[in-house]
């Protein structure tokens, strides 16, 4: 459905409270006063703690687990969990190789930190002491660490029967032969991104208990996927879903790390069903760093073909994604590889395109869908290429971008990888960012030079954030509808229940604002409830910047239906007909007077004699479903521009200025959007300059504390300026688009291009992230020796 028929249903709302208002977040009041409730805050009688014995090696045959006899009742092995099925995530992509991950190692260890035994005690410290007494016998095997070497003949195999350690290959096969032979300009680059670790403030954690009254497993989890976790648990535990309830309280950051079913919650649930008391596992930071949360490791070998002005005539690439030892449930190991091939062209009008991407198995923990899901790597790769083309043809980076960007008059636009762009003005977004950064002033500063010897660079990146998609890359529909339940309570307030979970994106506020606009009720009188499979409609969870498009649309539909009923009830109380009344600011009014939502609710629930007997029997409760008209994604556009100073002596990079221009369609709450973009940009700065999880040749992770794994802090994140453009989507309820991931996508490309702009006169081009001081100094030294690449 287009936006025209939906926008007309938006009601007159309390001033500055509905869609478009910079409303303070409702949830912040409890967070700022320390009343948030996270997994570690939950209290249960007779609670016992779990610690896991984890593999000390990356690849081995496990031959025996030694448990002291006096501890045997407190230690559980794979043989104890014999009635539990392995975690299996399967993609319908042709040729996909599925894996089976046992909750506890049976015979083959495939990553350092893999679970081998579960230990339970009254305290976490005691459980860890028990774990320390468990000894493992194993025969170590050669580890596969580098994803490119993993595909070579003779490489060790992570899984028997998997050809060349490849889970799946995904390709777009455009005809490039004539273009490659005749294009005036040919530019080739090989770029890589390093493996990162997702780092939410709150690590993963779960409390499992068996409710004997209801014969139900109750799992309290820091998850952004309550219903999907229930799906997976039912499958591996072999019990009906009705016997599982998943409750997600406040979540201290998700970013995709909490969008999986992991072995820990499977083990915990199995134990709770048998032990007669609640059990809890709280992940510590070292577990999170070493064993559970890797992402982002890509390799690209790209060739761009262009005319003498830098206009692209073709583009081809061979890509790889290090996907780790297992296919994570539910997204599978295919997600990043399929995304890379599909989204690498970005918002550029490329006539011919060929790309093949392989998802590679290595002896590392599974690759998870971190904020942006392949887009940060693709944006970095493509934007570095655009700058390289610009230098080759002797034009400015912005001129080459303007020559290649999809124009607004081409919308809606289908690109070379079959992405359907619904709306947007990408050239205008780039102009907004560059005008704010003041390119001419930066160039003048470059020419004058810095007194301290540092070199100034300007960089930019522009991309499309494919949001709210309801289909996987292979065309399989992932989501049918999102549903919202809305009920007017007897005191005239509104209760909204949705299955999606909030992970910091402000849904308790923004969904109340949608309700305000469609029902005319003040957001302060709206309570949004999330994260409980027992109470909410089914949801596929918080992922892919989909909340406001799918769930916001469902809330709009439910409240619009509720508004029609309210007007009918109000008309009855006013002794007139529904076509003679209006609904605004929480009141139904006619020429004779008005009644409030409280009056209507009181009559329906407490004084039904005041209403005619033939009133709508559905009452004041509504469940409505919604899906956007386009399931392949709603495209949010963004441009990032930044200015950096690079010290050639130390390799240190300082970000002097940073601007983001963003088109998220009709913005529900600009303040919430700004927070999403700024937070994502901070994460993207980590990708560009700091974050890296290196591995030894034996597969050992080498950054096992936050002293080794560097995250950007307040001193490293500049004052990010956010500019808004509103191009409504024709496919959503009120023109909204998703926006949750965009801030994290652009920094790698923008900062890399700024560093390269600063160092180009010295013969240096940085092609690997993060651009650490060591890498910059080594590149400068290599340039002085004459072997820059």
List the helices and strands and how they pair.
Blueprint: H1 3-7, H2 28-32, E1 48-54, E2 60-66, E3 75-76, E4 87-88, E5 100-101, E6 108-109, E7 115-121, H3 124-133, E8 135-140, H4 147-150, E9 166-173, H5 177-182, E10 185-193, E11 196-197, E12 205-211, E13 216-221, H6 226-237, E14 244-247, H7 263-275, E15 279-282, H8 285-292, E16 294-295, E17 298-306, E18 312-322, H9 335-343, E19 353-360, H10 375-393, H11 397-404, E20 413-414, E21 420-421, H12 426-437, H13 439-448, E22 455-467, E23 482-488, E24 494-498, H14 507-519, E25 526-529, H15 547-573, E26 582-584, E27 587-590, E28 593-596, H16 597-606, E29 621-626, E30 634-646, E31 653-663, H17 670-690, E32 721-725, H18 742-745, H19 747-759, E33 768-769, H20 773-785
Parallel strand pairs: 1-15, 10-33, 13-14, 18-19, 24-25, 31-32
Antiparallel strand pairs: 1-7, 2-6, 2-8, 3-7, 4-5, 9-19, 10-17, 11-16, 12-13, 12-15, 17-18, 20-21, 22-30, 23-24, 23-29, 26-27, 27-28, 30-31
């Amino acid at each position: 459905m287009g936006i025209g028929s939906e926008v007309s249903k938006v009601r007159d709302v309390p001033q500055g409270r509905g869609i478009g208002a910079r409303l303070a977040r409702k949830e912040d009041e409890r967070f700022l006063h320390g009343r948030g409730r996270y997994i570690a805050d939950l209290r249960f009688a007779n609670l016992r703690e779990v610690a896991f014995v984890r593999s000390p090696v990356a690849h081995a045959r496990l031959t025996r687990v030694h448990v002291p006899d006096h501890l045997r009742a407190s230690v559980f092995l794979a043989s104890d969990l014999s009635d539990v099925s392995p975690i299996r995530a399967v993609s319908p992509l042709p040729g996909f190789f599925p894996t089976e991950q046992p909750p506890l190692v049976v015979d083959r260890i495939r990553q350092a930190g893999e679970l081998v035994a579960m230990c339970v005690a009254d305290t976490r410290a005691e459980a860890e002491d028990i774990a320390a007494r468990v000894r493992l016998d194993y025969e170590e095997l050669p580890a596969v660490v580098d994803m490119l070497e993993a595909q070579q003949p003779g490489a060790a195999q992570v899984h028997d029967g998997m050809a060349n350690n490849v889970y799946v290959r995904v390709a777009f096969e455009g005809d490039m032969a004539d273009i490659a032979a005749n294009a005036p300009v040919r530019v080739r680059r090989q770029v890589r991104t390093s493996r990162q670790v997702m780092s939410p403030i709150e690590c993963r954690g779960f409390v499992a208990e068996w409710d004997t009254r209801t014969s139900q497993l109750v799992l309290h989890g820091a998850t952004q996927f309550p219903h999907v976790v229930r799906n997976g648990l039912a499958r591996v535990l072999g019990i009906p879903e009705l016997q599982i309830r998943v409750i997600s309280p406040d979540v201290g950051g998700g970013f995709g790390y909490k969008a999986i079913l992991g072995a820990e919650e499977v083990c915990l649930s199995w134990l709770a069903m048998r032990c007669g008391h609640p059990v809890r596992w709280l992940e510590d930071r070292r577990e999170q760093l070493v064993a559970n949360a890797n992402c982002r490791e890509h390799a690209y070998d790209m060739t761009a073909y262009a005319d003498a002005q830098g206009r692209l005539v073709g583009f081809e690439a061979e890509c790889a994604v290090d996907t780790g030892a297992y296919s994570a449930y539910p997204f599978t190991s295919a997600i990043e590889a399929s995304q890379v091939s599909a989204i690498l062209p970005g918002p550029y009008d490329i006539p011919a395109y060929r790309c093949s991407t392989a998802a590679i198995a290595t002896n590392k923990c599974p690759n998870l869908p971190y904020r942006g899901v392949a887009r940060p790597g693709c944006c970095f790769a493509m934007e570095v290429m655009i700058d390289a083309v610009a230098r080759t043809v002797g034009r400015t980076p912005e001129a080459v971008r303007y020559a290649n960007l999809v124009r607004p008059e081409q919308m809606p636009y289908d690109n070379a990888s079959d992405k359907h762009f619904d709306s947007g003005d990408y050239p205008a977004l780039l102009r907004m960012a560059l005008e704010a950064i003041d390119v001419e002033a930066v160039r003048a500063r470059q020419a004058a030079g810095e007194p301290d010897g540092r070199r100034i660079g300007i960089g930019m990146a522009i991309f499309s954030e494919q949001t709210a998609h309801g289909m996987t890359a292979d065309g399989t529909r992932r989501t049918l509808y999102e549903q919202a339940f809305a009920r007017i309570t007897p005191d005239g307030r509104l209760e909204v229940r949705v299955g999606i979970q909030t992970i910091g994106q402000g849904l308790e506020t923004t969904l109340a604002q949608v309700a305000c606009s469609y029902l005319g009720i003040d957001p302060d009188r709206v309570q949004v409830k999330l994260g409980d499979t027992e109470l909410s409609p089914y949801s596929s969870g918080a992922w892919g910047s989909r909340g406001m498009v799918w769930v916001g649309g469902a809330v709009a539909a439910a409240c619009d239906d509720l508004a029609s009923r309210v007007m009918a009830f109000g008309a009855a109380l006013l002794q007139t007909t529904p076509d003679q009344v209006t609904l605004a600011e929480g009141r139904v009014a006619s020429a004779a007077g008005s009644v409030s939502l409280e009056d209507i609710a009181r009559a329906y629930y407490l004084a039904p004699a005041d209403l005619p007997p033939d009133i709508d029997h559905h009452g004041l409760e509504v469940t409505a479903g919604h899906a956007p008209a386009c399931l392949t994604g709603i495209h949010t556009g963004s441009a990032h521009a930044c200015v950096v100073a690079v010290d050639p002596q130390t390799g240190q990079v300082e970000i002097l200025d940073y601007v983001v221009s963003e088109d998220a369609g009709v913005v529900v709450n600009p303040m919430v959007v700004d927070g999403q973009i700024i937070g994502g940009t901070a994460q993207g700065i980590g990708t560009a300059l700091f974050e890296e999880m290196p591995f030894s040749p034996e597969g050992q992770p080498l950054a096992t504390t936050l002293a080794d794994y560097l995250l950007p802090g307040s001193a490293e994140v500049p004052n990010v300026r956010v500019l808004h453009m509103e191009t409504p989507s024709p496919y959503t309820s009120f023109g909204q688009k998703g926006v949750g991931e965009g801030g994290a996508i652009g920094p790698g490309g923008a900062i890399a291009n700024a560093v390269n702009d600063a160092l180009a006169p010295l013969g240096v081009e940085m092609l690997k992230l993060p651009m650490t001081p060591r890498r910059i100094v080594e590149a400068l030294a290599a340039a002085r020796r004459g072997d820059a690449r």
